[in-house]
Backbone:
């Protein structure tokens, strides 16, 4: 959610910090700020709203200094005001913080009794005063930070600079990610919420483990674990670069990422199949024949990918699959069978609720499989098996290419399970995989017709409410389509199983209600077409997504129709995702909303 950048260098860091914050805009935020050490004391600049507001202030009030920290804040405790923006500063430290300090009220009361005076409504300011309190007891910055960390309850990543210490930057993490960057210049060191923040500065990254804290000095990082013991953390060479997170010729990151899907699906698939095009996963630490149930946990769009996977596991592998919203899963205290597999789906690999659900599953003796886009993430490190989605950086808040690569991995996993369990024939598996290999070219066909969807979007943009209907494997995509539309266009939308329409939603339908129907000519087509007739009889504007056969045999005259390529029913959720994404995108553009950074949303939700 929030973003952190910290830099220790021999050059002016404010421009570098500001650039780093711009690369973290995708995470979602409503204020931003910087603090640096200037002639031994701390100065900061903060602003409400977009980073451009902070940049304007820096033009009016330049901020020198060779060590500093920056932050984009997504408001939790306290309104999104300048006073509540980070960094929070005392006479001895400046602190930026991602996460939530659960015991901040008790700590704040304790510190106020010691005459500490607070300026903000935030939990973060408590950290700054707590470290200051220990510094007032003649502790060193390292000692004061270590002592403060032991008092904090909750999830956090923090970065701290200290008055009088121009060669020191301290970071810590518990529950929220934090990366350390090693500069090409031996004297430069960096902190970042993720590797993207540091991409143009360095490709040498190490990831702090749970409970770690690190002291950075010129060219050096000393990492301590939760017990304050000095430890080593591996340095990874990343493939990220500043060029990879540019928009190129596209107006928005979301559109660029939609158009990247043929390539990234192909790359993800290539990592999962052998030379004959058959699924070839690394050895798994369990036997599919002994697995009684798969439990899938995820949030948001990843949850809908999990719902599709439930159909695949049950249809192709005849294996019972349960899907849970991660934020609810552990609170159900669900009994989990011996020998079960817990499958986590996450773009960032840092989703707090999904991570907590995995801890619960691990305690229940489950084997953990992660489908993530960041192989070095917290979820990946907790898992027994990591199946990476090779989507590359996804900057748009509304997930597109991460979703379709998640589906690609999950389908391959289900096919592998079906083969291992002897319930999926080699011929059927080959047919599915042959069609999966053709999906990138099918998506290119859809993308060539984007202008038709763009024209439709102007009509949808005038609606107050939209329904999405689907059956079978396309039902979860109806839910995902509704989510996409409402999160970036702010139009209220709901997804339903088409057969459920008569059980309530049909009451909403009138001549002003667009109804997006996902209806490939599969075994459920006739039932879906019947539901469409019911919508049209009540004046609903039907947007009909099918294939040529479906459009011909339906006999329908919808408000708008589109013929997608015919494909094996198993791969349709991947193919049909693309027009659904394009409709949401162009509707949002027509309404003039902030497509890449929709209001109130964050890309990576790292707090509960």
Residues:
């Amino acid at each position: 959610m929030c973003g952190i950048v910290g830099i220790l260098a021999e050059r002016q860091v404010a421009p570098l910090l500001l650039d780093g914050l711009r690369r973290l805009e995708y995470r979602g935020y409503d204020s931003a700020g910087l603090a640096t050490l200037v002639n031994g004391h701390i100065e900061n600049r903060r602003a409400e709203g977009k980073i451009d507001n902070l940049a304007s202030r820096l033009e009016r009030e330049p901020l020198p200094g060779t060590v500093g920290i920056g932050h984009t804040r997504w408001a939790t405790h306290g309104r999104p005001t300048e006073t509540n923006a980070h960094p929070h500063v005392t006479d001895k430290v400046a602190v930026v913080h991602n996460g939530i300090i659960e015991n901040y009220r008790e700590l704040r009361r304790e510190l106020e009794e010691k005459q500490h005076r607070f300026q903000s409504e935030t939990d973060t300011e408590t950290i700054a005063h707590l470290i200051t309190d220990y510094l007032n007891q003649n502790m060193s910055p390292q000692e004061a930070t270590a002592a403060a960390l032991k008092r904090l309850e909750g999830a956090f990543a923090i970065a701290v600079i200290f008055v009088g210490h121009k060669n020191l930057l301290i970071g810590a993490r518990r529950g929220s990610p934090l990366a350390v960057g090693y500069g090409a210049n031996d004297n430069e060191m960096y902190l970042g919420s993720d590797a993207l923040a540091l991409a143009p500065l360095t490709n040498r990254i190490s990831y702090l483990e749970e409970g770690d804290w690190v002291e950075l000095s010129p060219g050096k990082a000393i990492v301590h674990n939760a017990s304050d013991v000095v430890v080593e953390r591996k340095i990874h060479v990343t493939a990220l670069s500043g060029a990879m997170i540019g928009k190129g010729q596209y107006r928005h990151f979301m559109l660029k990422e939609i158009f990247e899907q043929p390539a990234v699906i192909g790359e993800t698939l290539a990592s999962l199949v052998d030379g004959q095009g058959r699924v070839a996963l690394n050895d798994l630490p369990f036997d599919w024949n002994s697995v009684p149930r798969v439990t899938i946990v995820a949030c948001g769009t990843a949850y809908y990918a999990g719902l599709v996977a439930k159909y695949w596991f049950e249809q192709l592998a005849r294996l019972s699959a349960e899907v849970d919203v991660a934020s609810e899963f552990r609170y159900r205290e669900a009994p989990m069978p011996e020998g079960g597999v817990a499958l986590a789906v996450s773009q960032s690999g840092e989703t707090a609720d999904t991570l907590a659900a995995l801890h619960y599953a691990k305690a229940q003796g489950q084997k953990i499989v992660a489908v993530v886009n960041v192989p070095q993430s917290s979820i990946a490190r907790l898992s027994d098996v990591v199946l990476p989605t090779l989507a590359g950086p996804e900057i748009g808040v509304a997930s597109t290419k991460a979703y379709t690569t998640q589906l690609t991995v999950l389908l391959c996993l289900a096919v592998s399970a079906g083969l291992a369990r002897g319930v999926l024939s080699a011929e059927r598996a080959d047919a599915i995989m042959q069609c999966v290999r053709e999906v990138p070219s099918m998506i290119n066909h859809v993308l060539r017709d984007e202008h038709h969807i763009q024209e439709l979007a102007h009509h949808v943009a005038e609606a107050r409410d939209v329904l999405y209907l689907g059956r079978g494997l396309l039902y979860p995509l109806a839910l995902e389509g509704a989510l996409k539309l409402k999160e970036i266009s702010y139009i209220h939308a709901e997804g339903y199983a088409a057969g459920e329409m008569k059980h309530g939603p049909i009451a909403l339908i009138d001549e002003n209600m667009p109804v997006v129907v996902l209806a490939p000519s599969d075994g459920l087509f006739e039932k879906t077409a019947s539901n469409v007739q019911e919508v049209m009889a009540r004046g609903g504007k039907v947007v009909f997504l099918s294939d040529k056969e479906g459009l011909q045999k339906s006999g329908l005259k919808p408000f708008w129709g589109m013929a997608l390529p015919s494909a094996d029913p198993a791969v349709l959720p991947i193919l049909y995702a693309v027009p659904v994404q394009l409709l949401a995108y162009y509707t949002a553009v027509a309404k003039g909303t902030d497509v890449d950074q929709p209001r109130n949303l964050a890309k990576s939700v790292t707090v509960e």
Summary: The longest helix spans residues 426-448. Residues 522 and 569 are 7 Å apart (CA to CA). The first strand starts at residue 3 and ends at 8.
